[in-house]
Amino acid sequence: MIEFIHDTPILFLQLRWLDVIDVLFVAVLLYQLYKLVKGTVAIRIFLGILAIYLFWKVVTALRMELLSEILGQFIGVGVLALIIVFQQEIRRFLLIVGSQSPFAGAKILNRIFNWSKDDNRESSLKVNAMIKAIHNMSRTKTGALIILAHDTELKFHASTGIEINADVSAAIIESIFFKNSPLHDGGVIIYNNKIKAARCILPVSDNPEIPSHFGLRHRAAIGITENSTAIAIIVSEETGNISLSKRGVISENIKIEELREVLVSINQEEIQAAS
């Protein structure tokens, strides 16, 4: 059967502009999903399921009823398996979508609850205290992992450690990561200018592209920033070098003045979002 649309013959189908837009959206979605799982073990599973799905569509178009029914049942049950297998990737995808949503951030919350600017000034990060502590720990080669929570206070991860709930100060941060301190293992979570918890257990990234010279502290920093909007600051115990991880990407050997600029920019973003 041949149908004519605007004097253009098209075999077996009627092509509309909405169909073209539909295909483009699906292509963009598949590309974003591929970028999300690229470099992880899940990429092979993703490509395998995609191949089975495309084969099922071909079989259905050719009206091979028995094989189409079997593959259809497999695809239907496979949705639950996908949620289990790709739970970290799905969480990361939803996090990206949520963080880029117009409803994300503290600005709308401030409008809803009518928080004042004075409270926001008091809760802004104490940059000088952070810089002093990190500089001293870098100089003495004291290993440290500091998580700066942004949109949420990471309650689940904070519950795995020891609750502190103290104001940010250089003395407290340095005492936590002192080598003989019982709190020096794990990470410290800071939210709303409060040290919420110390000795927190953080998820370790399974990205195979992470350089082999990175230890568990750096991998944990990458892991927590892959699964949240938080920023992780790492001080190497071996070299004293400072690293910074954001959105799963780590920058090595950060200078102290560069770190200060990053923290100041975070403060400015917080104030702008809250105003």
Describe the structure.
The protein is of the alpha+beta class and 275 residues long. The chain has two domains: 2-99, no CATH class; 115-274, 3-Layer(aba) Sandwich (YojJ-like (1), CATH 3.40.1700. The chain is 52% helix and 16% strand. The chain is built from eleven helices and nine strands. It has helices at 17-37, 42-61, 65-85, 87-99, 106-113, 117-122, 127-139, 155-158, 170-176, 216-226, 256-274, and strands at 2-5, 8-11, 144-148, 162-167, 187-191, 194-200, 231-235, 242-246, 249-251. The strands form two sheets. The protein has a seven-stranded mixed sheet with strand order 4-6-5-3-7-8-9, sandwiched between helices. A hairpin with a 2-residue loop joins strand 8 and strand 9 (249-251). Helix 7 packs antiparallel against helix 11. The longest helix is centred in the N-terminal third of the chain and has 21 residues, at 17-37. The radius of gyration is 25 Å and the shape is elongated. The model is unreliable at 1-11 and 106-123 (pLDDT under 50).
